[in-house]
């Protein structure tokens, strides 16, 4: 069956699988069935008679593990526009619905380029109450954290950050920086002021740990 699947469908299947992995690493509850879904099952459950994905059916909603706030959820919408151009109309209603649902974070995955008007609209929706992130499908075809040259990145909790600074007698400005738009920072949805613990392999020590704070 896989040999007859349209390439765009296969691509979206891979992108959605990467999103599930990304959400798991961010601390959201994702089922094993979603993480291990096959292409055949994706086509059977989420595609129309012509084998094209029904975008509204592949929307993801997940709750953060061990979260005390029932609204600490994420919505992931997959957006594809006409002629691979996205002007904003495709996602405005979805963002308004997420805001009405008091969702704390929304991830939009675009199957095309955003027009300048769409980029302006997107920037107006992100706020302290609801963080809005945007990815292009091409950025999520593979999971960048699984590349052999990418060390293990762990986003620290506020308590861990406070302990780190106190333990070493440091101020935030003394920590090395990682930009908020860095691919790894975006993968984890990191915000300014958060700190990554980065674990690298070492031939002599086995592993060594460094820290980087997210900058704007």
UniProtKB/TrEMBL annotation:
UniProt cross-references to SUPFAM superfamilies, sorted A to Z: Eukaryotic RPB5 N-terminal domain, RPB5-like RNA polymerase subunit
Compartments where found: Nucleus
Domain named RNA polymerase subunit H/Rpb5 C-terminal: residues: 142-214
Positions of the RNA polymerase Rpb5 N-terminal domain: 8-81
GO molecular-function term, one example from the UniProt record: DNA binding
Residue ranges that the Swiss-Prot or TrEMBL entry lists as coiled coil: none
Keywords: DNA-directed RNA polymerase, Nucleus, Transcription
GO cellular component, as recorded: RNA polymerase I complex; RNA polymerase II, core complex; RNA polymerase III complex
Superkingdom, natural source: Eukaryota
One Gene Ontology term from the biological process aspect of the record: tRNA transcription by RNA polymerase III
Main location per the UniProt record: nucleus
Family: Belongs to the archaeal Rpo5/eukaryotic RPB5 RNA polymerase subunit family.
Protein name: DNA-directed RNA polymerase
The organism of origin for this protein: Blastocystis sp. subtype 1 (strain ATCC 50177 / NandII)
Lineage, opening ranks: Eukaryota, Sar, Stramenopiles, Bigyra, Opalozoa
